[in-house]
Amino acid sequence: MHLASTGRRARFAWAVALTLVGVAPHAEAQEGIAEQLFLEGRKLMAEQKFELACSKFKAAHDLDRTATGTLLNLALCHERINRTATAWAEFRQVAAESADRREDRVKLAREHEAALAPRLSRVRIVVPPAARAPGLVLVLDDGQPIAEASWGTDLPIDPGPHVIHASAPARISASVPVTIGETADRKLLTIPVLADAPVPAPSIGVDDIAHERNEAKRQTRRLIGYSLGGVGLATVAVGLAFGLSAKNQNERAKSLCNADGVCPDASTKDEASRTLANADTAATLANILSIGGGALVAGGAVLVLTALPSAKSPVALRVTPMWGGAGLVLGGAL
Description:
The protein is α+β, with helices and mostly antiparallel strands. The chain has helices at about 5-20, 25-45, 50-65, 70-80, 85-100, 105-115, 205-255, 265-305; strands spanning about 120-125, 135-140, 155, 160-165, 175-180, 185-190, 315-320, 330-334. It folds into three domains: about 5-120, Serine Threonine Protein Phosphatase 5, Tetratricopeptide repeat (Alpha Horseshoe), CATH 1.25.40; about 120-190, Immunoglobulin-like (Sandwich), CATH 2.60.40; about 215-245 and about 280-334, no CATH class.
């Protein structure tokens, strides 16, 4: 049965003619394309290439939603590829839209609708109270939303594999697969409780990153400062020990001879000379170690003080070595 009307063919020819002269209105051009797709679908149906035919009819009806003839052919095509629920709904739509206009289409659509009704497979989607998260949305695999009013109702569905996607704000989405049998199958599908989504980590801005880097640098400087200070203090302590040794040896040398430097004998003089030489060496080492250790302490103090989060006043340091003996003076002001 050929369902295209001569009126629509005339509109198609008129649209093509207007297109050739470059003045076709947008609506007329859309109808012309829809008509061409419809004719290709009819040809494919005759060749029993039903999948391709359905795609042509679908594209044609998307362009011209008022064409109930195209929708009727689409329903017949879906019926042939066993998309029973889709075809059943389309037959009902054709009957509703063709009432009082095309009784022949209404009659044909009602006949196929009635024949498909007992063959329909159905699925009931159950959402337990615990699974009813605020903002819960259910979507069929083709992107068709499943209205909340239809939950718990036996819904017609095409045979084959399907997936119900469940999502809600602040929850982890879930997918529930179901396979529908060919004829009059009944499936019960329960939506699980969606787990809470992990709380996202607080975002770190550029200022925060810069602050963390600066803090890491300050900590490193403080660590180096404390280490230098510790080594400096140990060095100063060794210098003090050498200074004390120099002082003791100097006093011992003086005790071997009188105040005028006259020694009782040659051996005593030699011992006094050796003792004074050792005292000079110890004094030299004391001065070197004290100055070096003092410099390390001062450097460590500078690193520690400049690594503070904020300086309220300038830092002033003063290092004063004690020449002629083992020691130093470290002074400063904050």
